[in-house]
Amino acid sequence: MARTQIEAAREGTVTDAMERVAERENRDPEFVRAQVAEGQAVIPANANHDALDPMIIGREFATKVNANIGNSEETSDRETELEKHHTAVHYGADTVMDLGTGANLDAIRETHVEHSPVPIGTVPLYEAVKRAGSPEDVTKGLLLEVIEKQARQGVDYMTIHAGILAEHLPLTDGRKTGIVSRGGSIMASWMEAHGEQNPLFQVYDELCGIFAKYDVTFSLGDSLRPGCLADACDEAQYAELDTLGELTRRAWEHDVQVMVEGPGHVPMHRVAENVERQQAVCDGAPFYVLGPLVTDVAPGYDHITSAIGAAMAAQAGAAMLCYVTPKEHLGLPEEEDVRDGLAAYRIAAHAGDVANDRPGARDWDDALSEARYAFDWREQFRLALDPDRAREFHDQTLPGDNYKEARFCSMCGAEFCSMRIDQEARRDGEMETLDDDRDGGTDLESSPAAEVNRPPVGTHESGDLPSVDDENDYPVERADDD
Hints:
Elements: H1 5-10, H2 16-25, H3 29-37, E1 41-42, E2 57-58, E3 64-69, H4 78-90, E4 95-98, H5 105-115, E5 120-122, H6 124-132, H7 140-153, E6 157-160, H8 182-194, H9 199-202, H10 204-214, E7 217-220, H11 235-253, E8 258-262, H12 271-281, E9 287-290, H13 302-316, E10 320-322, H14 335-355, H15 363-373, H16 377-383, H17 387-397, H18 418-427
Parallel strand pairs: 3-4, 3-10, 4-5, 5-6, 6-7, 7-8, 8-9, 9-10
Antiparallel strand pairs: 1-2
């Protein structure tokens, strides 16, 4: 019996996960199988993640969005992490990465996996450093131990910083911001202290064995991603990318699924170049990008600077976008930051899908536009990416129920509403009447669009995620998390 999705796909088997993905994407199951078999798409689905509703990441499918959450030593507790998870799922995160470095890591992680309908990702290197006490004290044995434990717990994909090599480090000397990846800086520190090659690179074949056993997907980390525009597309970044291409092919030899992580900070005119280069070097493995941020001057607004680059990356072929919140570079995001970051990135992902003419992607836009022209406020709210926010903004100035029937909003008022003026001119014969029959308008129920390109944004019920008040929902704390 096949152990991994890619192994089954290569054997010609359409798994239950592939059937579910085909349903969610409105695609043929055989097409899904072929994309997974060729490594062009991944279905992160750990065999021990029973609550998972399978999804797919690949450039031929709807663009996905990941939300990072996680506690730290300085702030955040278990209740806050559960609320972030609720918020992320509710506002449309397709996957959630737990990047916690604080207390109770095992308890929080196991609770997330036990109840999460979306794939859970981690960076196991963080836990290894926490247990060792310092980057220099991490051992290869500890790395393997932590990674296998997290795989056994049901983590669906892991960022593995195996691509940064000792020979790459001198290439960063002329940079403006050095190595900005946490995992990359840890590995660089370890190599400098030990005078050895990257330990994750050294044990990579053993990692492939663990990943194959549990069907964990590699998310190959971009340890040398640029941390500012000045460092984008430099020799260090592209040297690591070449190594990531080699690691991709090695994982495929072990029947392990792979996606590759990307930058970072990149000026607009070089975003497409980054995507195209990764696709060529990594033989079409899905590209998972952070941003990219297209300018460095907007702390507090980096969900916007990065969503611009994310939309361009999606259009160029990136398969999944890692959201950035307004707190980027400034602090640990809270619940409202998660909401704002996901809104920006769902917009970017959808815009990319519309630009790439994904089946039915624009139907959602058309349906909302029809409701807007008809002054159907309730339908506008229902179709909005964030219905609560749309209703809230409208009702701040026109709160009464009677204004839900009004043919204007407070921006232009009744006298200067352009759509009202347009409609009256057409009705009076000054212009041709628009064709408003259209069989009742756009029918989203019969649209060929994937689930993520149809409202509501949150396609999963988050009510099954436990409340922190119910202590029975938490696994027993472990001493190694102290």
